[in-house]
User: Fold this.
Amino acid sequence: MDMRSLLRTLEHATVRDIALVCLADALVGASFGAISVSGGLPLWVPIVLSVLVFAGGSQFAAVGVVLSGGGALAAVVTGLVLNARLLPFGFTVADVLQGPWWRRLLGAQLITDESAAFVLQQDRPQRRRAAFWVCGIGLFVVWNVAVLLGALAGGLIGNTDALGLDAAFPAVLLALVLPSLVDRRTRTAALVGAVVAVAATPYVPAGLPVLLALVGLLFAGRPAAAGGPEGAEGAEESEGSREPEAVAAAVKEEVR
Amino acid sequence: MMPLYAILLLAAGTYAYRIAGPLLGHRLALSERLRHLLAVAAAVLLVALVATGALTQGHGFAGWARPAGVLVAGVLAWRRAPFPAVVVAGAATTAVLRLCGVG
Assistant:
């Protein structure tokens, strides 16, 4: 399995889209490194987080909780709730992760919103497999190098508040989450959660308000599927891929 | 502070989510309702982080400069501005407001 033949398997447009997504994520990664270190964390923290966790949203979330004074466990729980969406992605791309056990174990680390989305855009098994590995390996390399460079740059920044860098962190998260708020019930749940979190901030230990926001899930409603939840049983194949397809659309949107 | 054990816990848990599908894919399927809840939970947490990160510092109000910067960034992101422009405009707004004496 060499990279050259994987690249040949893919259509030209797909390779270009993957490159553009890598470029966009490089900017997110560099901001992650810079914000973490300029916020006061040691250089190794964003770097080790990026290699071992390799999930941007949860990395930002965990660091955000810690930088706002929250405990390490609150940071872990927040990151784990956030990453729970990788669970369905794992089931979605399971078919491309065939082969020797070590390749499956390594490949699993490369499952991200982006790689799952690119797998879903492909129809033929060969191309699904190629899209997964090209996107996965490309993103892993680009993301970690970008975080390292950002972290090094972040160490050079003196007064972060004067530069408004404390606003950059919520700004990045807002840009990341905005596409998923087109769904009305997701929006309602998120708004309720945000109000609860802000209202609770003066009274509970740091880190906890964000977790309390999960009461917003009471407003999440049912999946947008036609028919009831009972009707979903028979049509597993098409039902199963709905969420990652939304991500695929979002990734395409981001590429333009 | 972010101790190493916390990073390892987060990494191990995240890897468990990733490997579950490839290991168990043939034997069980997730319900559509659970998939939906997981997706919404991610959005709820991110928006809560945006709100508390923009408005609060410690147990109090962060001042007006920061939420104003985040608001500018949000409008730009909504208008599909490129990612670097969104982040730089947000930080610059906050920085300029502070320069003008807004807290």
